[in-house]
Every structure is written in structure tokens, then in C-alpha cells.
Specification:
With about 575 residues, the protein is of the alpha+beta class. It is built from 17 helices and 23 strands. Among the domains are: about 170 residues, no CATH class; about 150 residues, no CATH class; about 45 residues, no CATH class. The strands form 6 sheets. An 8-stranded mixed beta sheet has the order 11-12-15-16-17-20-19-18.
């Protein structure tokens, strides 16, 4: 415990590890574990924003130490060592493959110009974005030990990035009032900052992505499947997940366990400030919507889930608790291949009777394994069943009426790609703080809606609806509401907990895209088709950015005949 002024805080266990070579202008960033992520792992409950230290960003802390050097302007080299970020690695993979490498090269590695498409994207990635905001720089990619690229004995890349600033050129941002947002390596909640909002480039990226996801939701499965990677070689095409149904056997085979998730803290949504442990105070919204505020255990309708890739009850031969990195399993009885637990978890709450989902805290297997295993984790040991949307769908489908899904709450939003988009929407509408319920609603006809749907927080809702149409029906998200948790009258200066409500409805029959929608690859034909669909998405070029290793370009065009033409080439399957 420690005190700051009159407030008392609990240590989170977070850490930022780096090396400074001040004399020669080099910075080596090695391991980052932000306070919120560390507290989630070390505490018995998910931390509330006001429980976390105000000083928490890696960039601010690293900059503070670098500023103590005699010549802080002498920074020339920024190394990101042992890169494990799951959004950065696929891009490196793609760069190496396109450069003709089947192995990760030792130094001098592969140099990527910042003026190239790959360099622009890589600079914008979370690893280099920590200290680089509006400076474009050349990049060199290398690895200290040669490991077969993508082979079964390669670990999840312990790679390196060298960010060279000696030849940097200052480039003005697209919107000089919109600085780059803090990267997702550091996910924390902060006070509403009206100057920290998405710049024009980010806004357009998310808007185009949201536009495409909107189209996918409105398509029948086979039509959506024509615009989906057919990795299962299906005929007819399908966008449906390969994981269907309630998956009791599959979840057990892939070592997923249902763990205790305190309902008094995580499934109680009242504004009872006498209970300081409640995580989500959204009673006003739930009362207006007619939804239960209390947990099943308290006589309400909300049931909590924590689905974990580990067994909290596992013990060794002496009866002692078995650490995660010593837990192993064999998913296939016919195969003697051994897998390791990762420590991943997906935490959420359902009100199945009234059709509501509350998404709380997700840690996917890859980043979880990187936290758990000091020596790295073999990529081919990741569980095949690992997407949050598939696992949540498996539990949602266990209720008697799964097609009754009406509301999906994103609770305590801290995603550092989503918050600046929310801030831009609020600023554009004249807000100086995040409003309490009824908040601000953006409808699907607006560009604000498309941008918000295209963010990571919005996209994962869309993917569940796109990939589980057979079980849920053809559904879409007609509106998104932005609001904050109810203010504590005794702590009026506490940072807001951002909340997003995604309303879910069946797509009206006359708005479902027809089965004969034509899909043509413009690169093959050299021209666009004339079959279109009525709507707002007129001649919009959509660049998919799913956070994976392959992108796609799509053109959605509309004409007066009321039919849609979708042109596309490759993209990867899920966030």
C-alpha cells in the first residue's frame, strides 16, 4: 500500500524494463507490463480506474528517465527487444515473406524505409508508437539467433526492431490538434482529455473498416462467405466459424476451464456507493432499458463467467498449487503432442433472459503465454480454439433463446485505439466531459457510427454476429451509445469509466443483401460491376486492417438499382 495526498493505493505489480545508453543515444525497451494489466492478474478483482496510479503510461515514465541524461535530444536509436506483440509480429512476418525470406535473418537484418507502405504501418504499430508520434524514421528488423521462420520449433518470435532517428524527418500530423494516442501496450483509463482524439487518418481507417463490417452483418452467410477467406475450402462459401454449438467437449479438450468470478463485484451494476468494490455502476442505463441490475446470486438475472486457459485447482504430486507454466494437456487422444496452458482468460457477464451481454476483460492466449513463459512459447502450442467470439458464443448458445440478443455492453472501455475515437465524437458534439446516461447515441447512417464500429471494441461485436448467423440470425448493430459510469458524489473528480452500448436487432428482410450479389475482383477484370445495392455506402473504398498479417481492399458501390457490388482481395479472418 502507498499514499498519494489523501488517497491510498495498492501496488499493482506493473513494470517497465528498459536500458539507457545515454552517451551514444540508444534506448533498449525490453518488457512492459502496464498497471491495469498487472493488477488484473495480481488482484482478486478487475481494477477500477480510480484504483490505478495517475502516472502510468510507459512513454511518460521512460521519457522521464531519458530526460535525466545530459543530452536528451541526442536520442538516435530506439530498440524494441524480443518483440512479442501479436499485432506487430504478423506484419513483420509479411514483410519478411515478401522480401523472399523463409527465416528470420541475423543482423544486418531487413531494412524498411519509412516512406514505404510497410514502414508507414510499422511506425504506427504499438511497439514504435511508444515514443514516436509524428516523426517518420527508417526501420531495421533483425533477430539475434536464426530460427526457422514459421516452423514447428520456432517460438513466438523473440525478435527485435531498431528504430533509427539519426535520419528522421519531421512530418506534420494529419490533424495538428490530434496527437497520436497511447499504444495498446499500455491500456489504462485516464481523465477525459478533449485534446486526445483520433486524427483524420485514424478516423478514416476506422470508418472504412466499420463500413465493411456493416455490410458483412447485413449479408446472408453465403454472400458474406464470398468475401471471407475460404480457409476451410467450403462449397458453398461461408463466413461461419468452424466452432459451432455449445462446445462443451471442445472447450474441455483445449483446456479451457470455468473459474470463479466474484458476482458481487462483477455482476452487480447498481449505483450503491456503499459497496466500493462494484466495477460497473450503470444502474441508470439498465433501469431505463428494463434490465436486471443484480447478479443471479442476489436474486437478479446477471451471471458472471471467467473462462480461463488454466486450471485454478490443479495441484502437483505433493498437493501444492501447480503454476500455469507447469500445466500441460493433450487435446487429441489420437495424438501424443503435448500443449501448455497459457493463462489466457475471457471475463464477461450474461443476462440471457433479457438478452444482454456485458464484456469485461479479455486476455488472449498469445499475449497471456508471453506473460507466463519467461523463455517464450512455441507458436504451434497455442490452442486452436482461442477466439473470444467463439468462446463467448459457445456459452451464449447454452441459453434457451440465443436469438434474443438485444444489448451488448462494452464495460469500462480502456482500449487505447477506441478511446480517441470516442473522444473525437464527443468533442465534435460539443461535450467537455463524458456524459452520464442517456449519453450520446450514434446511428448507423452516421460516419461517427462507422468509425466506432471499426475500432477494436466495435469490431469484435460485429465478428461474433458475422460468424454465428446460423445460431443468432442475421443481426446488425443499428446504433451505439456512449456514456460513463455514474459519478460518485463523494469522489466527483474520479476519472470516468467509458461505457459503450451496442444495440442489436434483426436485419429487416428488405435490407438483407440478395443472394445473387455479384462479387468481382477489380484487379482481374479491370473494371467495376454495375450490380449495386441501395444504401449510404456509395463508391466507398474500404481498406481492411484486422490487426493480422494480411490486408484486403474492397470497393462497395451503390447505384439507383438498389444492388451492391463488392470487390475484394485477400484479408485475414479475425481480430
Amino acid at each position: 500500500m502507498y499514499a498519494v495526498g489523501r488517497d491510498t493505493y495498492t501496488a499493482t505489480g506493473g513494470h517497465y524494463r528498459f536500458v539507457v545508453n545515454a552517451e551514444q543515444g540508444a534506448l533498449f525497451v525490453q518488457s512492459l507490463d502496464a498497471p491495469r494489466h498487472a493488477a488484473t492478474q495480481n488482484w482478486a478483482h478487475t481494477p477500477r480506474p480510480n484504483e490505478l496510479p495517475r502516472l502510468q503510461f510507459a512513454s511518460e515514465i521512460i521519457a522521464a528517465y531519458w530526460s535525466r541524461t545530459p543530452n536528451p535530444k541526442g536520442l538516435k536509436y530506439y530498440f524494441a527487444n524480443n518483440v512479442v506483440n501479436e499485432e506487430t509480429l504478423p506484419l513483420i512476418n509479411k514483410i519478411l515473406q515478401e522480401s523472399g525470406y523463409d527465416r528470420i535473418p541475423e543482423w544486418p537484418g531487413v531494412r524498411v524505409s519509412a516512406d514505404s507502405e510497410e514502414g508507414t504501418v510499422l511506425v504506427a504499430m504499438k511497439i514504435t508508437a511508444l515514443l514516436v508520434t509524428v516523426i517518420c524514421v527508417p526501420l531495421v528488423y533483425s533477430k539475434h539467433v536464426e530460427v526457422s521462420f514459421g516452423s514447428s520449433n520456432s517460438t513466438a518470435f523473440t525478435s527485435g526492431l531498431l528504430d533509427r532517428r539519426d535520419s528522421a524527418v519531421s512530418i506534420p500530423p494529419t490533424n495538428d490538434k490530434a496527437p497520436a494516442s497511447e499504444p495498446n501496450l499500455v491500456q489504462t483509463a485516464v481523465d477525459f482529455d478533449p485534446t486526445d482524439y483520433a486524427n483524420d487518418a485514424s478516423w478514416d481507417k476506422y470508418k472504412k473498416k466499420g463500413n465493411w463490417l456493416r455490410c458483412l452483418m447485413e449479408m446472408p452467410d453465403e454472400v458474406a462467405g464470398r468475401n471471407w477467406p475460404n480457409y476451410l475450402d467450403r462449397n458453398p462459401p461461408s463466413a461461419a466459424s468452424q466452432w459451432k454449438g455449445t462446445l462443451e467437449t471442445e472447450l474441455r479438450d483445449w483446456y479451457w476451464h470455468e473459474a470463479y468470478y466474484d458476482p458481487e463485484i462483477n455482476c452487480e451494476f447498481s449505483d450503491d456507493f456503499a459497496n466500493l468494490e462494484i466495477n460497473n455502476r450503470i444502474e441508470a442505463a439498465l433501469n431505463k432499458l428494463g434490465l436486471s441490475v443484480k447478479s443471479v446470486e442476489q436474486g437478479g438475472k446477471n451471471k458472471c463467467y471467467s473462462i480461463e486457459h488454466m486450471d485454478e485447482n490443479a495441484v502437483d504430486d505433493d498437493g501444492d498449487e501447480l503454476p500455469v507454466d507447469m500445466q500441460t494437456y493433450f487435446p487429441n487422444d489420437d495424438d501424443d503432442k503435448e500443449y501448455g496452458a497459457t493463462g489466457a482468460y475471457y471475463r464477461f457477464a450474461f443476462n440471457a433472459e433479457q438478452g444482454a451481454i456485458y464484456g469485461h476483460n479479455f486476455l488472449a492466449p498469445w499475449p497471456a503465454a508471453m506473460d507466463t513463459y519467461a523463455e517464450g512459447f512455441p507458436a504451434d502450442q497455442l490452442p486452436l480454439l482461442r477466439q473470444a467470439s467463439d468462446i463467448m458464443a459457445a456459452f451464449w448458445l447454452r441459453n434457451p433463446n440465443p436469438k434474443n440478443l438485444k444489448y451488448w455492453f462494452g464495460s469500462n472501455i480502456i482500449n487505447t485505439e477506441t478511446v480517441p475515437v470516442v473522444n473525437r465524437i464527443l468533442v465534435s458534439k460539443g461535450y467537455k466531459e463524458v456524459p452520464e446516461w442517456p449519453g450520446v447515441q450514434v446511428d448507423e447512417s452516421s460516419e461517427e457510427y462507422l468509425a466506432l464500429l471499426g475500432t477494436p471494441v466495435g469490431a469484435n461485436k460485429a465478428f461474433m454476429l458475422v460468424q454465428h448467423k446460423a445460431e443468432l440470425g442475421i443481426k446488425h448493430i443499428p446504433s451505439i451509445t456512449i456514456f460513463r459510469d455514474t459519478k460518485d458524489p463523494n469522489r466527483p473528480d474520479d476519472a470516468p469509466a467509458y461505457q459503450l452500448l451496442f444495440r442489436i436487432e434483426d436485419v429487416p428482410q428488405d435490407e438483407v443483401m440478395p443472394d445473387d450479389t455479384e462479387i468481382v475482383d477489380q484487379e482481374m477484370t479491370g473494371s467495376a460491376t454495375k450490380r449495386m445495392r441501395r444504401g449510404e455506402r456509395r463508391d466507398s473504398l474500404v481498406e481492411m486492417d484486422l490487426g493480422k498479417n494480411v490486408g484486403r481492399m474492397h470497393r462497395v458501390s451503390i447505384d439507383g438499382r438498389g444492388e451492391t457490388m463488392l470487390q475484394s482481395h485477400e484479408f485475414e479472418r479475425e481480430l
